[in-house]
Amino acid sequence: MMDLDRVNAYMARVEESETKTFKPVSSKLKVGLDLGTAYIVLVVLDEEDNPIACEKQAAQVLRDGVVVDYTGARQIVKDLKEKLEERLGTELVNCAIAMPAGTESSVKTHQYVAEGVGFEVTNILDEPSAANSIYQIENGVVVDIGGGTTGLAILKDGKVVQIEDEPTGGTHLTLVLAGNYHVSFQEAEAIKQDYARHKEILPVVKAVIEKMASIVNRYIDKSQTDAIYLCGGTCCLTGIETIFEKETGIKTIKPANPFLVTPAGIAMNCKL
pTM (2 decimals)? Predict the structure, then answer.
């Protein structure tokens, strides 16, 4: 099983690095670039994987993990990179990137975005595998629910044996909320991100979450699966794990902050 205390302590440090810049053990820095459907995130770690700094920005330049606005994506990454370089007083050179499982055909565009702002891409991986660099699970399923897709990695003996991805994610929850409350997409997004309203909105979006859980059900062998481990921004929704557990019949675990797990895991895989 995953050591939840270890993961929570580490992720709390990553979260803290959004506002506080930590001192690295050496000048060698690893960067993880997560081009998400709802957010673009850059996480900086030192060579021992200690969190150093993190910047993020809400964005709508990708759809289902695919870059649809190259110029917009590049501008946001450029701005985030410059902010971090100013905070750290040094140039950031190497970075790793990750793709939602099943969108490998758009690797080149992701790479062009990173290289277009001066990064050298030293590693490319899939998002659920990146998350497992943080979780360190031997056996189980990592489910990464982003803005556009639900991706999963099935692990046996610490190795990824299968990856799947389908286009249902946080954007779909927002659309349901916009329709239900008769508000704009932006207003619905704000409602979704308001923790105080999670109890109220959970019944409204329950059917979409059940669909996400049914995607996982489709690919896993229940007799071989001990637990489901959630990550990704959409999993910040309070109570999502309860619906997953009920729908799949499998113990479902999520850390206190599932949002930054994947970007931090991407950074861990940056080769120096």
Answer: 0.91
